[in-house]
Amino acid sequence: MNTATARQAAISDEIHVATAPQPATTAAGLWFLVAATGLAIFASYIAVSYGRAALGGPAAQSKWVPGDGVGNALLTLHLLFAFLMTIGGVLQLLPTVRRHLPAMHRAVGRGLLMGALFGSLSGLYLLWVRGTVGDLSQHLGMTLNAIFIIGFAGLAWRAARARDFATHRRWALRLFLAANGVWFFRVGLMLWLMVLGRPAGFDPKSFTGPFLTFLAFAQFLLPLAVLELYLRSRSYGVATALVIASVATAGGILGATLGMWLPRM
Question: How many domains does the chain have?
Fold first, then answer.
Protein backbone atom coordinates (compact mmCIF):
# COMPACT_ATOMS: atom_id res chain seq x y z
CA MET A 1 0.00 0.00 0.00
CA ASN A 2 1.53 3.34 -1.07
CA THR A 3 1.49 6.49 1.07
CA ALA A 4 -1.50 8.09 -0.68
CA THR A 5 -3.58 4.96 -0.36
CA ALA A 6 -2.66 4.58 3.30
CA ARG A 7 -3.61 8.21 3.94
CA GLN A 8 -6.98 7.74 2.24
CA ALA A 9 -7.63 4.59 4.28
CA ALA A 10 -6.78 6.43 7.50
CA ILE A 11 -9.13 9.27 6.60
CA SER A 12 -11.85 6.77 5.76
CA ASP A 13 -11.39 5.09 9.14
CA GLU A 14 -11.54 8.46 10.92
CA ILE A 15 -14.75 9.38 9.12
CA HIS A 16 -16.27 6.01 9.99
CA VAL A 17 -15.38 6.41 13.66
CA ALA A 18 -16.67 9.98 13.76
CA THR A 19 -19.99 9.12 12.14
CA ALA A 20 -20.66 5.77 13.78
CA PRO A 21 -23.39 5.88 16.43
CA GLN A 22 -21.94 5.96 19.93
CA PRO A 23 -23.73 4.78 23.08
CA ALA A 24 -23.79 8.27 24.61
CA THR A 25 -25.13 9.80 21.39
CA THR A 26 -27.88 7.18 21.22
CA ALA A 27 -28.72 7.74 24.88
CA ALA A 28 -28.85 11.51 24.30
CA GLY A 29 -31.28 10.91 21.44
CA LEU A 30 -33.43 8.82 23.77
CA TRP A 31 -33.51 11.59 26.36
CA PHE A 32 -34.39 14.18 23.73
CA LEU A 33 -37.28 12.03 22.47
CA VAL A 34 -38.63 11.73 26.01
CA ALA A 35 -38.14 15.44 26.72
CA ALA A 36 -39.69 16.53 23.41
CA THR A 37 -42.81 14.51 24.24
CA GLY A 38 -43.05 16.09 27.67
CA LEU A 39 -42.45 19.58 26.31
CA ALA A 40 -45.19 19.09 23.71
CA ILE A 41 -47.61 18.17 26.50
CA PHE A 42 -46.48 21.17 28.54
CA ALA A 43 -46.91 23.51 25.56
CA SER A 44 -50.42 22.13 25.04
CA TYR A 45 -51.17 22.82 28.69
CA ILE A 46 -49.97 26.43 28.36
CA ALA A 47 -52.02 26.99 25.21
CA VAL A 48 -55.24 25.39 26.46
CA SER A 49 -55.23 26.42 30.12
CA TYR A 50 -54.00 29.98 29.84
CA GLY A 51 -55.59 30.53 26.43
CA ARG A 52 -58.97 29.59 27.86
CA ALA A 53 -58.34 31.83 30.86
CA ALA A 54 -57.47 34.76 28.61
CA LEU A 55 -60.80 34.26 26.82
CA GLY A 56 -62.71 34.36 30.09
CA GLY A 57 -62.60 30.72 31.20
CA PRO A 58 -61.92 29.66 34.78
CA ALA A 59 -58.55 27.90 34.42
CA ALA A 60 -55.63 30.02 35.70
CA GLN A 61 -57.89 33.10 35.63
CA SER A 62 -56.46 34.44 38.87
CA LYS A 63 -53.13 34.99 37.09
CA TRP A 64 -54.60 38.11 35.49
CA VAL A 65 -55.08 40.76 38.16
CA PRO A 66 -57.83 43.36 37.57
CA GLY A 67 -56.40 46.85 37.26
CA ASP A 68 -52.78 45.74 36.75
CA GLY A 69 -52.46 46.61 33.08
CA VAL A 70 -48.66 46.45 32.94
CA GLY A 71 -48.45 43.22 34.91
CA ASN A 72 -51.19 41.56 32.86
CA ALA A 73 -49.56 42.60 29.59
CA LEU A 74 -46.20 41.26 30.72
CA LEU A 75 -47.82 38.03 31.91
CA THR A 76 -49.42 37.56 28.51
CA LEU A 77 -46.10 38.28 26.80
CA HIS A 78 -44.29 35.91 29.15
CA LEU A 79 -46.73 33.05 28.49
CA LEU A 80 -46.62 33.65 24.75
CA PHE A 81 -42.83 33.48 24.68
CA ALA A 82 -42.89 30.44 26.98
CA PHE A 83 -45.13 28.61 24.52
CA LEU A 84 -43.11 29.65 21.47
CA MET A 85 -39.77 28.80 23.08
CA THR A 86 -41.02 25.39 24.21
CA ILE A 87 -42.11 24.43 20.70
CA GLY A 88 -39.38 26.34 18.84
CA GLY A 89 -36.61 24.96 21.03
CA VAL A 90 -37.56 21.40 20.15
CA LEU A 91 -37.74 22.25 16.43
CA GLN A 92 -34.29 23.86 16.52
CA LEU A 93 -32.69 20.68 17.80
CA LEU A 94 -34.16 18.46 15.09
CA PRO A 95 -31.35 17.50 12.65
CA THR A 96 -33.81 17.60 9.73
CA VAL A 97 -34.61 21.25 10.36
CA ARG A 98 -30.96 22.25 10.70
CA ARG A 99 -29.82 20.38 7.60
CA HIS A 100 -32.70 20.74 5.17
CA LEU A 101 -34.52 23.89 6.31
CA PRO A 102 -31.74 26.37 7.10
CA ALA A 103 -33.89 29.44 6.47
CA MET A 104 -36.48 28.17 8.93
CA HIS A 105 -33.74 27.31 11.42
CA ARG A 106 -32.37 30.86 11.27
CA ALA A 107 -35.80 32.47 11.53
CA VAL A 108 -36.88 30.35 14.47
CA GLY A 109 -33.48 30.90 16.08
CA ARG A 110 -33.86 34.68 15.92
CA GLY A 111 -37.31 34.37 17.45
CA LEU A 112 -35.96 32.21 20.25
CA LEU A 113 -33.20 34.69 21.05
CA MET A 114 -35.76 37.49 21.28
CA GLY A 115 -38.01 35.25 23.35
CA ALA A 116 -35.16 34.43 25.71
CA LEU A 117 -34.55 38.12 26.34
CA PHE A 118 -38.13 39.38 26.67
CA GLY A 119 -39.43 36.22 28.33
CA SER A 120 -36.71 36.44 31.00
CA LEU A 121 -37.18 40.16 31.62
CA SER A 122 -40.97 39.82 31.87
CA GLY A 123 -40.50 36.85 34.19
CA LEU A 124 -38.23 38.87 36.46
CA TYR A 125 -40.85 41.62 36.65
CA LEU A 126 -43.55 39.12 37.56
CA LEU A 127 -41.25 37.52 40.12
CA TRP A 128 -39.97 40.61 41.94
CA VAL A 129 -42.60 43.29 41.30
CA ARG A 130 -45.92 41.45 41.14
CA GLY A 131 -44.75 38.60 43.34
CA THR A 132 -45.35 34.86 43.23
CA VAL A 133 -45.28 31.77 45.44
CA GLY A 134 -42.13 30.60 47.17
CA ASP A 135 -39.55 32.28 49.34
CA LEU A 136 -36.47 34.40 48.75
CA SER A 137 -34.20 31.42 48.11
CA GLN A 138 -36.45 30.15 45.33
CA HIS A 139 -36.69 33.61 43.81
CA LEU A 140 -32.90 33.88 43.78
CA GLY A 141 -32.67 30.55 41.98
CA MET A 142 -35.19 31.68 39.37
CA THR A 143 -33.34 34.96 38.95
CA LEU A 144 -30.06 33.16 38.35
CA ASN A 145 -31.87 30.98 35.82
CA ALA A 146 -33.05 34.09 33.95
CA ILE A 147 -29.51 35.50 33.95
CA PHE A 148 -28.20 32.24 32.49
CA ILE A 149 -30.89 32.31 29.79
CA ILE A 150 -30.03 35.85 28.71
CA GLY A 151 -26.28 35.13 28.82
CA PHE A 152 -26.56 31.90 26.82
CA ALA A 153 -28.76 33.62 24.24
CA GLY A 154 -26.18 36.36 23.76
CA LEU A 155 -23.31 33.90 23.43
CA ALA A 156 -25.26 31.71 20.98
CA TRP A 157 -26.04 34.79 18.87
CA ARG A 158 -22.41 35.96 18.92
CA ALA A 159 -21.13 32.55 17.81
CA ALA A 160 -23.70 32.41 15.00
CA ARG A 161 -22.70 35.89 13.83
CA ALA A 162 -19.08 34.72 13.74
CA ARG A 163 -20.19 31.60 11.79
CA ASP A 164 -18.63 29.45 14.49
CA PHE A 165 -21.43 26.92 14.30
CA ALA A 166 -19.84 24.31 16.56
CA THR A 167 -19.64 26.84 19.39
CA HIS A 168 -23.09 28.18 18.49
CA ARG A 169 -24.58 24.69 18.83
CA ARG A 170 -23.08 24.23 22.30
CA TRP A 171 -24.45 27.56 23.55
CA ALA A 172 -27.80 26.82 21.92
CA LEU A 173 -28.00 23.50 23.79
CA ARG A 174 -27.26 25.30 27.06
CA LEU A 175 -29.93 27.87 26.22
CA PHE A 176 -32.46 25.13 25.48
CA LEU A 177 -31.94 23.53 28.88
CA ALA A 178 -31.85 26.77 30.87
CA ALA A 179 -34.92 28.16 29.10
CA ASN A 180 -36.88 25.07 30.08
CA GLY A 181 -36.00 25.39 33.76
CA VAL A 182 -39.66 25.89 34.73
CA TRP A 183 -40.49 22.63 32.95
CA PHE A 184 -37.67 20.79 34.72
CA PHE A 185 -38.97 22.21 38.02
CA ARG A 186 -42.41 20.68 37.47
CA VAL A 187 -41.03 17.38 36.21
CA GLY A 188 -38.60 17.14 39.13
CA LEU A 189 -41.26 18.04 41.69
CA MET A 190 -43.72 15.44 40.43
CA LEU A 191 -41.02 12.77 40.24
CA TRP A 192 -40.12 13.54 43.87
CA LEU A 193 -43.76 13.21 44.93
CA MET A 194 -44.21 9.98 42.97
CA VAL A 195 -41.14 8.35 44.49
CA LEU A 196 -41.80 9.38 48.10
CA GLY A 197 -45.58 9.41 47.97
CA ARG A 198 -45.80 12.59 50.04
CA PRO A 199 -44.58 16.23 50.03
CA ALA A 200 -41.30 15.57 51.84
CA GLY A 201 -38.88 18.44 52.36
CA PHE A 202 -41.38 21.25 51.83
CA ASP A 203 -44.68 22.66 53.04
CA PRO A 204 -47.30 22.39 50.28
CA LYS A 205 -49.39 25.20 51.79
CA SER A 206 -46.66 27.86 51.82
CA PHE A 207 -44.75 26.14 49.00
CA THR A 208 -41.46 26.61 50.83
CA GLY A 209 -38.86 24.25 52.21
CA PRO A 210 -35.33 22.93 51.63
CA PHE A 211 -36.29 20.65 48.74
CA LEU A 212 -37.92 23.49 46.80
CA THR A 213 -34.88 25.68 47.44
CA PHE A 214 -32.71 22.91 46.05
CA LEU A 215 -35.04 22.45 43.07
CA ALA A 216 -35.05 26.18 42.27
CA PHE A 217 -31.34 25.88 41.46
CA ALA A 218 -31.25 22.25 40.31
CA GLN A 219 -33.95 22.91 37.69
CA PHE A 220 -31.29 24.36 35.40
CA LEU A 221 -27.92 23.58 37.01
CA LEU A 222 -28.43 19.80 37.04
CA PRO A 223 -29.42 19.51 33.34
CA LEU A 224 -26.55 21.82 32.43
CA ALA A 225 -24.11 19.66 34.39
CA VAL A 226 -25.26 16.55 32.53
CA LEU A 227 -24.89 18.41 29.23
CA GLU A 228 -21.33 19.43 30.08
CA LEU A 229 -20.47 15.80 30.78
CA TYR A 230 -21.95 14.81 27.43
CA LEU A 231 -20.07 17.54 25.54
CA ARG A 232 -16.78 16.45 27.05
CA SER A 233 -17.15 12.69 26.93
CA ARG A 234 -18.99 9.96 25.03
CA SER A 235 -18.08 7.28 27.56
CA TYR A 236 -20.29 4.44 28.67
CA GLY A 237 -20.61 6.15 32.03
CA VAL A 238 -22.16 9.21 30.38
CA ALA A 239 -24.41 6.97 28.31
CA THR A 240 -25.59 5.24 31.48
CA ALA A 241 -26.25 8.59 33.15
CA LEU A 242 -28.33 9.71 30.16
CA VAL A 243 -30.38 6.52 30.20
CA ILE A 244 -31.08 7.02 33.91
CA ALA A 245 -31.98 10.65 33.19
CA SER A 246 -34.35 9.49 30.44
CA VAL A 247 -36.16 7.13 32.81
CA ALA A 248 -36.36 9.77 35.55
CA THR A 249 -37.58 12.40 33.08
CA ALA A 250 -40.24 10.04 31.73
CA GLY A 251 -41.44 9.34 35.27
CA GLY A 252 -41.63 13.04 36.09
CA ILE A 253 -43.47 13.77 32.84
CA LEU A 254 -46.01 11.07 33.62
CA GLY A 255 -46.57 12.47 37.10
CA ALA A 256 -46.83 16.07 35.88
CA THR A 257 -49.17 15.13 33.04
CA LEU A 258 -51.57 13.15 35.20
CA GLY A 259 -51.35 15.26 38.35
CA MET A 260 -50.73 18.78 37.10
CA TRP A 261 -51.37 19.43 33.40
CA LEU A 262 -54.28 17.27 32.23
CA PRO A 263 -56.58 18.23 35.15
CA ARG A 264 -56.14 21.89 34.19
CA MET A 265 -56.68 21.48 30.45
Answer: 1
